[in-house]
Design goal:
The structure is a homodimer. By secondary structure, the first copy, chain A, is α+β, with helices and mostly antiparallel strands. The first copy, chain A, has 7 helices and 21 strands. In chain A, helix 5 links the parallel strand 15 and strand 16. The interface between A and B is large, with 72 and 72 residues. The complex binds pyridoxal-5'-phosphate (2 copies). Chains A, B: Its EC number is 2.6.1.42. Chains A, B: GO terms for molecular function: L-isoleucine-2-oxoglutarate transaminase activity; L-leucine-2-oxoglutarate transaminase activity; L-valine-2-oxoglutarate transaminase activity. Chains A, B: Belongs to the class-IV pyridoxal-phosphate-dependent aminotransferase family.
Chain lengths: ~350, ~350
Amino acid sequence: MNTTVAMNITKSEKSRISEIDFNNLAFGSVFTDHMFFCDYVDGAWQQPQIAPYGPISIDPSAKVFHYGQAVFEGMKAFKDDEGATWLFRPEENWERINKSSDRLAIPEFPKEYFFDGLKTLLHLDNEWIKSGDGNSLYIRPFVIATQSGVSASPSDRYRFMIICAPAQAYYSGEVSVLFAEKYSRAADGGVGFAKAAGNYASQFYPTNLAKEKGYQQIVWTDASTHEYLEEAGTMNVFFRVGNTLLTAPNNDRILDGITRKSIIQLAKDAGIDVQVRRVSVSEIVTAATSGELKEIFGAGTAAVVVPFKSFGYQEKDYDLPSIEDSYASKFKKALKDIQYNRASDPHGWRYEVK
Amino acid sequence: MNTTVAMNITKSEKSRISEIDFNNLAFGSVFTDHMFFCDYVDGAWQQPQIAPYGPISIDPSAKVFHYGQAVFEGMKAFKDDEGATWLFRPEENWERINKSSDRLAIPEFPKEYFFDGLKTLLHLDNEWIKSGDGNSLYIRPFVIATQSGVSASPSDRYRFMIICAPAQAYYSGEVSVLFAEKYSRAADGGVGFAKAAGNYASQFYPTNLAKEKGYQQIVWTDASTHEYLEEAGTMNVFFRVGNTLLTAPNNDRILDGITRKSIIQLAKDAGIDVQVRRVSVSEIVTAATSGELKEIFGAGTAAVVVPFKSFGYQEKDYDLPSIEDSYASKFKKALKDIQYNRASDPHGWRYEVK
Ligand SMILES: Cc1ncc(COP(=O)(O)O)c(C=O)c1O
Ligand SMILES: Cc1ncc(COP(=O)(O)O)c(C=O)c1O
């Protein structure tokens, strides 16, 4: 292993791995033997540490509890058939967590700490990464504000952590989505583009309402007019009208998804007409009615690509056709082939952990 | 003391109170000897507990860290010259924390638990409440999502807590505010009306930018047009034009402040023309230029009433006159006289803790 950052490592005495049923994993519920953490104190990130995974001790007045000063990332490690371990565009995650941190007034985390921490952790817990299609290790870097005190101002202490959860292929079942008409996820000039903790809890209640009506997820629209389609709770969204692929442009409300930008590139590589522009609810409803709307799918690290079965808007449901050679299945396969080191990697997206 | 809820109480062995310099308290940084907490498990709030104030142990995958599922309240206890302890409109805080919880998909907290917990805690830590003008005990009820697991869905475990910090009069110095032109605090259809943790961290970065320009706080405008003035970071805002008092109406972006609604009532009682309606930036700029704008002040539990010295908008600063018999000082005195049991209480806002 090629690391340079000094780290304080305490290994777990006995691995828990034999207790885990790797064929029955609920997403993000079982964690590996170790965790990585690094504290920001007196204006500097201190020496990083790795310790056995377990509870942390934190003051009840810590700012993360009161003011939601916290950001996170989501990434995956894959094992190929020769036993090598791969990440997918990990520099993007490092850059993005720092973009999120900037917006939340959290100090940026140094690149070497991020990568050396990640590599050392994946080295120690390598057995937890299973080969085989669909298997992966979900990796969750995050930062929380740890200063004690209930005044509403940025913390002067933080903890950066990485925890890891083995994951199987993500079968979400059939997904019907609801286009948002009243609730919103993010404001212009707000923090929607950041993976800020508070962006997620605010979606739970409207999503519960949608679930009661039989939908699995919401596709958010712009908060000002609800006329333009933006993204889902943890996925960006693509629309195929005829053979044209549409997706909303990045702005300060939408997460700049790594799966999204990879799919845009793969679509260009395949000569597909891909348009990154505002997508209005009305054009999608019109295309659904005329039969021109072929697919809608979500794209994100956890689920890779999720085709939607139907969407609801203004008390009406619109079914999507089930088509062969869908873009969704094409991109899902292409992404996974790169992630599992089964195909060539023309854009240099794979990153070997060694 | 008049309580009915069974509680598990562990008293601290030795009070820390003799170590505290009550004449030099930074807001919200020193906590009393005890804390109240109650866990939500298996669909029910369990038996409440009081224990010595101290760190809690929590899994690094707890949902509060990742998804910001957390809400809070802020209230104060006052001691009158006879040694009796008073709260100000505490039912409003209980109702509001549950409104916030609903929006964040957190289960509501029962009224008897809230009040019996609060009373028992204030009884145990009564010495920490100092009499004398400006002295108070700041009380922070809050709820955090404690379920382990990094899937973005509502937690099935929560902890409700109350912690308390002795406070002195809040001298903020002279406050210049900046009217928001680009950043925003809350979206239509979002969670701005809730005391949701994530609403606060998202203000830190824009507030830092404002501070670099010499302002202490931001007055937020509506996210869609930035044409209407809404509220400050932790205070509602009032404008006095001539002798008319203006404040924005409640909507889903603005916190329904208890100080705000008390001031509206006091203004009505005093025969002041108070208009609860949208207040445009342009009318305030016009009134400032013509000399009709007499005052702008913030209103909130922590600071009670804070007169603003000037405001900045589009790279220009507008000074506010310093006037005698300001509404700000009138309402501040009236509120404090009720809070400290020095004046009659026609609306029944005082609540004795006994
Ligand atoms: C709000 C949101 N949109 C989109 C995505 C997809 O981004 P990525 O492809 O980088 O995983 C995520 C998360 O992963 C997300 O949280
Ligand atoms: C965003 C916001 N607005 C206004 C207020 C004032 O409300 P109250 O008068 O109930 O304290 C607060 C907090 O206390 C707040 O957090």
